[in-house]
Amino acid sequence: MADKEKEVRPQHNSHHFLLVAYGIQSHINPGRVLAHRLTRLGIDGSVQATLSVPVASYRRMFPDATTAETATDGIISYVPCSDGVDDGSWTKDADDRALRRRATSESLSAIVARFADRGQPVTCIICTMIFLPVLDVAREHNIPVAIYWIQPATLLAINYHYFHGYNEIITSHAIDPTYKVCLPGLSCPLQIGNFPSFLIDMSGNEMSKAIIELFQELFKYIDQLRPKVLLNTFDELEANVIREIKKHLDVFTVGPMVGSSTEARIHLFKHDNVDKKRYMEWLQAHPEKSVVYVSFGSITKNSKWQIDEIIGGLRQCGRPYLLVMRKDGLEDDDESNHNLEDTQSQLGMVVEWCDQLEVLSHSTVGCFVSHCGWNSTIEAVVSGVPVIGVPNMFDQLTNIYLIEEEWGIGIKGERNSDGVVTGTELARCIELVMGESPKAMAIRERSKALKEIAQAAANARGSAEKNLRDFIETIQVNGTFCMDSTMSKSIKL
Question: Where is the signal peptide (predicted)?
């Protein structure tokens, strides 16, 4: 799959998008789908896209390629960037963040220069969310930037307004989860407990502080230069908030960016054809809409207690289930007490990883127990599968609010005083969603209706394609790009 870079002569009025993504599953897959869609819009070869990911992720994606090579899947190319550490670890503190930012900026700058030397100049850099080294490189090379917001528009509005006058009221009530805040564009007041976790974390957590600092710089940049913002959502899903945020930002709704269930996807965890054949055949053996699918994503870790409660609840409800449980998915590192064989039962199948979109698209899946990351949420919407949310952090707290209160396609599993969703509670939620009560039927009908709207938006010549074409037309190949060079220095990271 890895091919060495070849010189390509620049084409008249051509575009080369360099899309830079964090090295985690939830950034790489929507980044890849966007890069593919951009390229396919240029059927005459006038649009080219390259996806850049950190070295550690690149090695997992292309184990047979060297990091000196550019890989390709026949549609887009892939190139690694280095943060100076290249081990996939999270930053430790402000000094570590600054060092890695400089190293990443230097690596990306070299990539841009190399493409220019080979007749493939980058005409626009797109970054997923808050990849700040991109801003440094754009300033250095005078290249336009676009922000790829891979969370719902509601989260963009919440974060925008937090940094534009609402931070004091939010932080002053952070310890009261039921306190309600009215934000522009939201259909009703939002409880503090439904805000993204880092905005209401008063514990001094290093990660929360780091995220707030990153967003602070991002929104200052947006205020000064008003870059294009691509939203992985669609108008019908968040009509009011999209209409409001367009008053402040230059946004394009290009979602749902989930690809199709038949397209190859990137898996950063072990997942081969033998595993896939096994769980797909298992699904096929069950009646339509009968299976409970359970997965908590690529980052979330649960305690052994929580996993035991989940397995107990699944067995209690008496419905067939497919449970994704990674060996590194326990937060207490007590992996020895949890192996996949111990959790198997006549009712269920347990796997370490799966092709989630293909599973959700299968006719036998009737419910999705999820951490409610945005990728998982939008995949459930596109697949028409009701959701039981077990949110943990970041945007998940807001996403479950949207699922339950705004769209009516699922419910939240309530945690006890120890922060655990008990097996009894999970079984109750599954029965509520998959049973025959009026509420269960309403949830399923709403899920089906929203699926049709989402698929219409994603189809060829749908709103996503139209808006993406409009975005491309706004990018001037020879456009100017400038900013106050002192801006980045004024913000201490």
Answer: none
SS3 percent helix, strand, coil of the chain, rounded to 5, is: 45, 15, 40
Q: 16, 27, 161, 362: which is the annotated catalytic residue?
A: 27
The residues, ordered by sequence, that sit 6+ positions from 122 with a Cβ below 8 Å of its Cβ are 16, 17, 18, 50, 112, 115, 116, 141, 143
157, 184 Cβ separation under 8 angstroms: yes
**Which residue blocks in 293-339 are alpha helix, DSSP H?**
304-317
Burial of 371 (0-12, 13-18, 19+ CB in 10 A): buried
What's the CA gap between 306 and 312, in Å, rounded? 10
C-alpha neighbours within 13 Å on the C-beta side of residue 127: 20
Burial code (b: 16+ CB inside 10 Å, e: under 16) for 415-451 equals eeeeebbbbebbbbbbbbbbeeeeebeebbebbeebb
CB neighbours (10 Å) of residue 45?
Answer: 10
Beta bridge partners of 291: 365
- From 338, 320, 321, select the one nearest 329 (Cα to Cα): 338
pLDDT at 419: 87
Which position has the token pair 């655990």? 420
Closest-CA residue to 162 (of 203, 197, 134, 127): 197
| Residue 474 CB partners (closer than 8 Å, separation 6+) | 228
Who contacts 484 (Cβ-Cβ below 8 Å, separation ≥6)?
A: 224
Q: Quick check: 346 and 366 in contact, CB under 8 A?
A: no
255: pLDDT strictly greater than 50: yes
Bridge-partner residues for 54, per DSSP?
81
Nearest-angstrom CA–CA distance, 305 and 390: 15
**pTM, 2 dp:** 0.88
Q: What is the pLDDT of residue 488?
A: 36
C-alpha 193/C-alpha 376 separation (Å) is 21
- The tokens for 341 are 């064989």
Q: Which amino acid is located at 153 in the chain?
A: A
Determine the length of the chain: 493
Q: Which helix (H) or strand (E) holds 446?
A: helix 438-458
Query: Residue 325 carries which side chain, given as an amino acid letter?
Result: M
Query: pLDDT for 97-147, tens place per residue?
Result: 899 999 999 999 999 999 999 999 999 999 998 888 999 999 999 999 999
- Identity (one letter) of the amino acid at 107? S
pLDDT tens track for 265-281:
666 666 667 788 889 99
Task: Write the DSSP string, 102-152.
Answer: HHHHHHHHHHHHHHHHTT----EEEEES--THHHHHHHHHT--EEEEE-S-
Give the whole-angstrom CA distance, residue 85 versus residue 64: 21
The predicted pLDDT at position 491 comes to 30
With a CB cutoff of 8 Å and minimum separation 6, the contacts of 127 are 19, 20, 21, 134, 135, 145, 146, 147, 148
| pLDDT for the residue numbered 276 | 86
Q: How far is CA 405 from the centre of its chain?
A: 21
